[in-house]
Design goal:
The complex is a heterotrimer. Chain A is α/β, with parallel strands linked by helices. Chain A is built from eleven helices and nine strands. In chain A, helix 2 packs across helix 9, helix 2 runs antiparallel to helix 10 and helix 4 runs parallel beside helix 11. The chains are: A alpha/beta, B mainly alpha, C mainly alpha.
């Protein structure tokens, strides 16, 4: 008699969660790990998306900042996390570039994660101190090439979007320039405003307001189409340098081995979140747009990551910069 | 006229019932979380940030956030004074004399001094922000790498005065601090330095972990030495408020601290850090009786606390006028603004005058509330000191662990807390002081970064430090400080102090 | 012994400075040094290490023929119970979960003082745990897992 009770209890204990777990994901709060500190552009993007996803999932979506080592610490944390759909990662382009920048990564960017979808692609802008002489992008390139020993390029540190774009720019115009690294975007932008350095290429999240305020001079935007917030700014392709097309794309990942139906649910939720009014409006103010529905899918993110790893490998290797 | 109109708009915005309430809640929460040991301003704000997202109105949210900021800062000073546990670089200086005052039963006076000094500094600095934000920004932008390097030299040279023992040891501690500050990835080459292959240290060692370790935990260990023999470590509390004489003595330091803090706080990246250290040095230099410093001199609390708060206030300037964060706390503020739908930039003042001036007005209101809230609370904080120390240890250690871990969820930061505690204890046993070490730690990366950046920008020409006028002036100041420190007469005075202690 | 004294504390201090300088200096040499005009990552720390070792020598020289206070008692019990507390928290917060980790952390630190008795220690640790839960998890919603996978069955 006693044995039967135990058996029934055990069966109940095992049966109930597994049935409920499969059908009613999520049954508790989901955590999205941001591999950067609070307050930065990626953190902001994540918090906006998390809020909208929480509405759709009917559960809290918490944001945890696990900053450090160019985003690789947070990514490593999620790679090792339980693949139950309750720990996710929102990472940007660094997911692809870290594959080359770091020679000793504790995870394999291509095989350690399941893909949920692309979140947004933030455009980059090429800006200079406000009294930089050239008047348009063509003149700008000629000027930079002619004065390659004088021109200085600021960036926010190794692996930062501004660092990547700077490398891409030098490789596109086939001219090495003097690079001046900073500890983060804040000090780099300060020195650009103060005219201590000449040029920088950074995300619209950081530059739009400065361009509109006339405190820096903008030359081009790195997207195929012009931006709504900066309609007068030509694209790099219009200006004759298509090789400079680049964006800081953000993707949502889950640890490898997450149940497919959970990934699908998350992907649906992400797509819904990206159509949320608040998300669209806030993204717009930052000079970016949410990824369209067909990009907020596992397939699109996987393809993006593969292409981008292959794109950046030769550029980073040619520059010979490594972060470890 | 414009200014008056703007300020009127600001106060109108900030003094609606809801906004006053948000400001009050912010100050209260900031104080309550910030007062937990080992939880500094950055951690406090990061923890409380999501609460402000619940407020739909951006002005209200930012006013609350500003309140949290002041509260957190004051909370940090409170733990520095009560249990020698500074939560951020600036309150490390407050700990020097504030904690000594507490041990002598004057914790109430030290806390009141900090509150009053902060309020005066906050009022003056808020006025400065309202009046001179744009021109001050222009000056800040003139600071390039060469100027920062020279400024850091001034800071380093003056840091020697922080020590009240051997000068040689103080310099050695600064250097150890500089070396510890360099741990992490070199931003110029990507080379990991002194990380022993631990990737978690790639972004450098955690300041709060170091400060908590070398100050707070080392102090706990020292108290445990005499665990069996000593009943209470704090002398009987005498008077919660400063005496008339103490009030008189704090006037000049508060004003000087305010001036220093306001000036240095404007500089993004490192300026505000120097303010409280510089103020301490200055007060010790002009004091009638410098030997009192380190033993519980009220000027040593009043000056740096005012400088700290004035600097905190003016560090809003680059954010408000340019949208550039001067420190990690400001970066959090900018993140909060973006989530509220305001992207900070050079146009915020023109596009959102109610918000811009509302924040400025709420700075002052926040400071006022801080005083109103905290003067009565002083009695409560001081009562905490009557809790036997052996009951406080476990509580302190638990909160330290949570506080340090919560910033980046980095377990290695906690390992470093333990290491820093041990190192701090060893240094204390060897009669080496931790304050110069902390200053060196903060300045180390800035010093090297700006030195190397200046050399890159000048194309390897070292005369850049002398040919750029601001940089040259700063180097002259450094030289002057050096001369004063090593002048024979002053030297004799120092030795007297030294003998007195031995 | 008369006439020839040495301040042992300062002697130890000087040796410590030299040792720290040597550790950092040794590692700096392994890095690219560059030149004074184009400094590599090892340049600045190498210079600092050199100065630190020099100061160590000065401190040792000063310690000769000086009288000094003795080192005094050492808080061994504190070192072995206070310092491991944060380490324990770090090692277990994700495995055991927040609640057990914080309880044990406080409990370990409790025994640093000889005045503590076990009942008191458990009460204090429980109090800290409840407070931390209310403040950090319930009120502030920090993303900690209350009970970790190690305790799941």
């Amino acid at each position: 008699m006693k044995k039967m009770w135990v058996a029934m209890l055990a069966a109940a204990a095992f049966a109930v969660p597994s049935v409920a777990g499969a059908q009613a994901y999520p049954e508790r709060a989901v955590t999205i790990v941001v591999p950067f500190s609070a307050g930065g552009p990626t953190d902001t993007v994540t918090r906006l998306v998390a809020e909208a996803m929480a509405k759709d999932l009917g559960q809290q979506v918490l944001v945890e900042n696990v900053g450090g080592a160019g985003g690789t610490l947070g990514a490593a944390r999620v790679a090792e996390a339980e693949a139950d759909g309750y720990t996710l990662l929102l990472h940007h382009i660094g997911m692809a570039t870290s594959a080359t920048l770091y020679r000793k990564l504790p995870y394999d960017p291509l095989n350690a994660f399941d893909y949920v979808g692309l979140v947004t692609e933030v455009p980059m802008t090429i800006v200079a101190r406000k009294d930089f002489e050239p008047q348009d992008f063509k003149a700008f390139i000629e000027h930079v090439k002619a004065n390659k020993d004088q021109v200085t390029v600021a960036n926010a540190g190794i692996g930062a979007a501004s660092h990547l774009c700077g490398m891409l720019f030098m490789s596109a115009i086939e001219t090495p320039l003097t690079t001046v690294p900073y500890q983060g975007t804040g000090p780099a932008m300060t020195d650009l405003l103060g005219g201590q350095v000449d040029i920088m290429c950074d995300q619209t999240t950081n530059t739009t307001k400065q361009i509109q305020g006339g405190t820096v001079k903008a030359y081009a935007v790195t997207t195929p189409e012009r931006l709504d917030v900066l309609p007068d700014l030509p694209t790099v392709t219009e200006a004759g340098l298509p090789a400079l097309e680049v964006s800081v794309w953000h993707g949502l990942y889950a640890p490898k081995g997450t149940p497919p139906e959970v990934v699908e649910r998350l992907s649906k939720s992400l797509q819904t979140a990206l159509q949320d009014e608040n998300v669209v409006a806030r993204f717009g103010e930052l000079g970016t747009t949410p990824s369209p529905q067909e990009d907020a899918t596992p397939q699109a993110l996987k393809a993006k990551l593969e292409t981008e790893i292959n794109r950046w490998r030769p550029i980073i290797e040619a520059a010979g910069v490594y972060a470890d | 006229m414009d200014l008056l109109q703007n300020l009127a708009l600001g106060f109108q915005t900030a003094s609606t019932l809801w906004n006053l309430l948000f400001c009050f809640i912010g100050v209260l929460l900031g104080t309550l979380i910030g007062v937990l040991p080992g939880i500094g301003a950055t951690a406090t704000i990061a923890m409380l940030l999501p609460i402000t997202f619940q407020i739909g109105d951006p002005v209200g949210a930012l006013i609350m956030l500003a309140g949290i900021y002041y509260g957190a800062q004051y909370g940090g000073s409170t733990t520095a004074i009560l249990i020698n546990m500074p939560g951020e670089s600036s309150s490390a200086v407050t700990a020097l004399d504030g904690y000594q005052m507490a041990r002598k039963g004057r914790a109430g006076a030290a806390l009141a001094t900090a509150a009053i000094g902060s309020f005066v500094a906050g009022t003056v600095a808020t006025g400065l922000v309202a009046l001179f934000a744009p021109p001050l920004t222009a000056i800040a932008l003139k600071f390039g790498a060469a100027e920062y390097f020279s400024l850091m030299i001034v800071g380093l040279v003056s840091s020697v005065a922080l020590a009240h023992g051997s000068v040689v040891k103080a310099i050695a501690m600064v250097i150890i601090g500089l070396l510890l500050g360099l741990v992490g990835t070199d931003i110029y080459s990507g080379t990991p330095r002194f990380t022993f292959g631990i990737r978690e240290y790639a972004d450098g060692l955690n300041f709060v972990a170091l400060a908590v370790g070398v100050f707070g935990i080392a102090e706990i260990l020292r108290n445990l030495e005499t665990d069996r023999t000593r009943e209470v470590i704090v002398a009987k509390v005498s008077g919660l408020m400063p005496t008339r004489d103490e009030l008189r003595r704090m006037v000049a330091p508060v004003l000087r601290g305010t001036a220093l803090g306001s000036a240095l706080g404007v500089l993004p990246g490192g300026g505000a850090i120097l303010a409280s250290f510089a103020s301490y040095t200055l007060e010790k230099r002009v004091a009638d009786n410098p030997s009192e410093f380190g033993q519980g001199a009220i000027q040593g609390v009043a000056g740096p606390e005012s400088a700290n708060n004035a600097g905190a206030q003016t560090s809003f300037i680059p954010m408000l006028t340019l949208g550039i964060p001067a420190n990690p706390v400001m970066a959090l503020m900018i993140g909060a603004m973006i989530i509220q739908g305001i992207v900070p930039g050079p146009n915020v003042a023109a596009e959102q005058p109610a918000l811009f001036w509302g924040i400025i007005a709420s700075m002052w209101i926040g400071n006022l509330m801080l005083v109103i809230l905290n003067l009565p609370l002083i009695g409560l904080w001081v009562k905490l000191l009557t809790i036997p120390y052996y009951i406080l240890f476990p509580i302190i250690m638990a909160f330290c662990s949570i506080g340090v871990y919560s910033v980046n969820s980095n377990v290695y930061d906690l390992f470093f807390v333990a290491f820093a505690g041990l190192a701090g204890y060893v240094f204390a046993k060897l009669r080496c002081e931790p304050a110069p070490l902390l200053l060196g730690f903060v300045l180390g990366p800035l010093l090297e970064e700006n030195l190397r950046r200046a050399m890159i920008l000048s194309r390897g020409d070292p005369t850049t430090f002398f040919t750029r006028p601001i940089s040259a002036i700063l180097l002259l100041i450094a030289l002057a400080v050096l001369v004063v420190v090593f002048l024979p007469a002053v030297r004799r005075k120092r030795e007297e102090v030294f003998v007195e202690e031995a | 012994m008369s006439g020839y004294t040495i301040d042992r504390v300062n002697l130890a201090c000087g040796l410590l400075f030299i040792a720290v300088g040597a550790v950092f200096g040794y590692q700096s040499v392994g890095m690219e040094l560059g030149t004074a005009l184009r400094m590599g990552p090892g340049y600045f720390p190498l210079v600092l290490s050199g100065v630190l070792m020099l100061l160590g020598v000065v401190v040792i020289l000063q310690s000769i023929r000086a009288e000094g206070e003795a080192l005094g008692a050492i808080a061994w019990r504190g070192i072995f119970l206070i310092l491991p507390a944060p380490i324990f928290f770090g090692l277990t917060v994700r495995g055991l979960g927040f609640l057990p980790a914080i309880f044990c952390t406080a409990l370990i630190a409790s025994f640093a003082s000889t005045r503590m008795n076990p009942l008191m220690a458990v009460l204090i640790s429980a109090g800290v745990t409840v407070f931390s839960y209310l403040a950090f998890i319930y009120a502030l919603g920090l993303p900690f897992r209350l009970v970790g996978p190690w305790l799941a069955f």
